[in-house]
TrEMBL record:
Protein name: Shikimate kinase
Keyword ATP-binding assigned: yes
HAMAP family linked: Shikimate_kinase
Superkingdom of origin organism: Archaea
Keywords: Amino-acid biosynthesis, Aromatic amino acid biosynthesis, ATP-binding, Kinase, Nucleotide-binding, Transferase
Matches recorded under Pfam families: SKI
Molecular function terms, GO-annotated: kinase activity
Length: 166
């Protein structure tokens, strides 16, 4: 792995991108960027508030603008689960580093997302969690340079597996 490159974490809501990202950044001596936090800072509101008031399309637009404005170097970037819905955002992230898909099965995502209504998860009107999962899996697989299965693993193991895969 080249040291100027970023490590971009993609995956379902609840896959552990932010948590794994922080530990990974510490372990590798890299910066850590959480795009959800940047979106909240940019909008001055919580993710769920943006979704509730402005809707999924506005949220995705802010997410895309936020990511396109990033110029990180030597950073671990934890993205929101919906980032793969934006080809422009993904092209920007891919150009600066390696994309790692933290993969979890549907049942595990469901279990981890007990706080679904407050998490800021981009569901289209009338879309179920299952439909969102099925729609995004092919996108994660398409953009991933590496895939790390995270099911039933503790965070340290996941971090270790990501480092091995790099």
């Amino acid at each position: 792995m080249h040291h100027h490159e970023n490590i971009v974490l993609i995956g379902m809501p609840g896959a552990g991108k932010s948590t794994v990202g922080v530990i990974l950044a510490k372990t590798l001596g890299m910066q850590f960027v959480d795009t959800d936090i940047l979106i909240q800072e940019r909008a001055g509101r919580m993710l769920q508030e943006i979704l509730d008031k402005d809707g999924p399309d506005a949220f995705k637009r802010i997410e895309e603008e936020t990511i396109l404005s990033l110029q990180p170097r030597n950073a671990v970037i934890a993205t929101g689960g919906s980032v793969v819905c934006s080809p422009d955002a993904m092209a920007h992230l891919e150009s600066g580093g390696v994309v790692v898909y933290l993969e979890i099965p549907y049942a595990e995502m469901e279990k981890r997302l007990k706080n679904i209504t407050t998490r800021g998860i981009v569901l289209l009107p009338g879309q179920s969690l299952r439909e969102m999962y099925d729609e995004r899996v092919p996108l994660y697989e398409k953009y991933a340079d590496l895939t790390v299965a995270c099911s039933g693993e503790d965070l340290e193991s996941v971090v270790g597996r990501v480092i091995e895969a790099l």
